[in-house]
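Final paragraph of the annual report: two paired records, presented back to back.
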Amino acid sequence: MNIYFLVEGRHTEKKLYPEWLKYLIPELKRVTYHDEAKNNNYYLISAKGYPRILYDSLDNAIDKIKETNNYDYLVLCLDADEETVSEKIDEVNQHIQEKKINLGDTKIEIIVQNRCLETWLLGNNKIFNSRQPLETPLSDYVNYYDVSQDDPEKMGDYDMRNHADFHCEYLKEIFRAKNIVYNKKHPGDTKKEYYLEQLQTRVKDNPTHLETFQNFLRFCNLIKRQLY
């Protein structure tokens, strides 16, 4: 089993996904170069943004997969941003069809982060409890939408430039209230096992929350089953 991960983000996904995969699929070992994958390995590379992931990096990934002929999955991880999840998936599939992409036995998996990776990270109820005393602007954000109670994937944009900007800012304020730092280059505690476990607890306790994060977990469970 070998997996080629192509992630949209320039920084966070490159640091977060490898740490989470250590906990979710410890049998898979990361390789530094795409042609090093032998057995139960994965390769992960950033597309450095959208639309580059579709109109540049995807072609490069396909060439590398065909060159090695040793990957079972190509996994695209990208943000929904201002589109719905179904619209983003349709966009990717349409691009694949228009380019007449055929990878033979290599399956293509699309992981959409709705609205962005920070949206998933807002689901940790251990690091944030809206009943504690809050200062502005976090208190304003909670009054607008309480992510400790309601599904972060359903949250609006608070009249900011877009959903991702607000969701990221909300997360930063939650961390700031704990006197810790989160930013895209230094995702901090979000890489740790306890943080991932809290997100898993959130969706277990609230099965309708963080549906796209659940899709990611389901994919990881599928891979684990295929390894045995």
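The closing record of the year follows.
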Amino acid sequence: MFSSIVVGTDGSKTASQAVREAVDMAKAVGATLELVSAYAPVSEQRLRAEKRRAPSDMQQVVSPRRETEMLLSDAADIAREANVEVNVHARQGDPSDAILDVAEERSADLVIVGNKGMTGAKRFMLGSVPNRVSHHAPCSVLIVRTT
């Protein structure tokens, strides 16, 4: 039925619910889980300023990509604990574009997103990420009620 499931997360509590649902689904059907998170580009000037303010042992961590990779690693641990094969995808740019791109690249059979809780400048009442994904995904979409 499903061999590849894509799930988007931003590290929020509600997105974590969607990840847990995706892990359960992947485990039940033996699918590979593709975890996706997006980060906004940040100017080099701002990154340098933030690094100067950070403690010396944390300066290498101050980067949007690194923070995204860390949250994906945490989510991947949930999947691995359930013995689900998992891949992570940190993408720069719009969260819905990131999810849609990975779904297409991995020939996903299903995309799972939470109904709310996605962060970013384009968030609206019902959540622009699940709305956009539901209208443009190359496969079936499951929108998990997380609120």
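The CA atoms of residues 46 and 52 lie 10 Å apart. This concludes the annual technical report; the extension proposal builds directly on these records.
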